[in-house]
């Protein structure tokens, strides 16, 4: 389970607003964090409870109401529920499944900064997420060691200022949009003053799980920046995209954002041609282009989601048979030490 030290919590309190928190923050605070409550709300019988408690002890459950409302009650195989439901399998040890599957600890030259690929850097902008996805490759990430104070951010930004090869800053986390707009505006204001930076990319699941996150305060700083803006959403199943999510996408596009999506191929959730086809179709209806389909990163606790490479290739071949090329996501794996994602 992720726990935060008092010093860490104090640092992140710097951006606490003095006025009434926006609606999305109340939804974030009200997310379900109790596995028994999750089972009860979805009508799952008592047999699910021990496994849910065991998984929760390793990585806490977190599900906002807006996401819960898209799940089918009384259906333990619901594809949205399966992404967030803790299970006893998470406690199993599987050879090759480790706590840092992408060896990110080797690529953190400054606090909050991950530099793996040429031309772009990743900033750990928030240590938390609105939803805790059971397959997350950062479920064991040491956020306490990578959550800069503002003074420490300045030092991290200095390393960007001094490297003219960096053209793109990627806000990541956790979920970067879990940070307050005040904090994000502060950071982006500094980023856009770095002349060699051209693009701002945001990797987020918040517009999906709490669509109200895309409010006027967010659109204000995002719409105002001189940087080209790309938001990479993370959606794994067409059922995640309801009218509220479509509305959030429309607001982002109106602010000049290019919208892409990345998915993870997950056993029992989206491992079928029909399911992936429906996802691509629904994404495009919402104005989002499918970008990547990742095979699972071998993170400890998530082996039960794995789909073998040969099966993954067959699925994507099946997508090519029925979809135009621009709706077929690139099937990739991230291999530690490689200079880019590796196509499969
Ligand atoms: S939202 Fe992203 S970073 Fe957060 S738990 Fe899910 S996959 Fe991981």
Automatic annotation (TrEMBL):
Short name of any one Pfam family annotated for the protein: Radical_SAM
Keyword Iron-sulfur: yes
Keywords of the record: 4Fe-4S, Iron, Iron-sulfur, Isomerase, Metal-binding, Pyridoxal phosphate, S-adenosyl-L-methionine
Top-level taxon of the source organism: Bacteria
Domain (Radical SAM core): residue spans on this chain: 115-338
Cofactor(s) needed by this chain: [4Fe-4S] cluster; pyridoxal 5'-phosphate
Entries under Gene3D superfamilies matching the protein: Aldolase class I (3.20.20.70)
InterPro entries: Aldolase_TIM, EpmB, Lys_aminomutase/Glu_NH3_mut, rSAM, rSAM_sf
Catalyzed reaction equations: L-lysine = D-beta-lysine
Stretches assigned to coiled coil: none
Sequence similarity: Belongs to the radical SAM superfamily. KamA family.
Full protein name: L-lysine 2,3-aminomutase
Organism, as annotated: Halomonas tibetensis
Source organism phylogeny: Bacteria, Pseudomonadati, Pseudomonadota, Gammaproteobacteria, Oceanospirillales
Gene: epmB
